[in-house]
Amino acid sequence: MTRYGGACHGAAVRFEIVAEIDHVRSCDCSICRLRGALNFRVPRENLTLLTRWENLVLYQWGSHTARDYFCATCGILAFRRPSDPTPAERRNGVAPFDGWAINVRCLAGVDIDALPVVRIHGSRIRHDN
To answer: pTM of the full predicted structure?
Structure first.
């Protein structure tokens, strides 16, 4: 496992993760498509926030089960708590994930271009079924 340092644009939000990053996830839902984040999931205990939570702004939309954390100063999404699976996803065997989706673009020392991109079709998820 490797320890990576991460930060927003102005370093008002700093954090560390422990992970072996072997891919990034690109989602096509309305918000992910607009913000352009490339995410990698880590267990809850593998994220250490080095700045105060007060430096972050929480944004929730849709099912309100995901929690997107942005820097209050520069607006960069550093990490998020992913949405809970919908009832239909649970019926199809998708298990809940208790961790963080890290915006790999915020990590130092990661060659994003060398990582495979896994396409996530969030635009196809319906939260009413």
So the answer is: 0.85
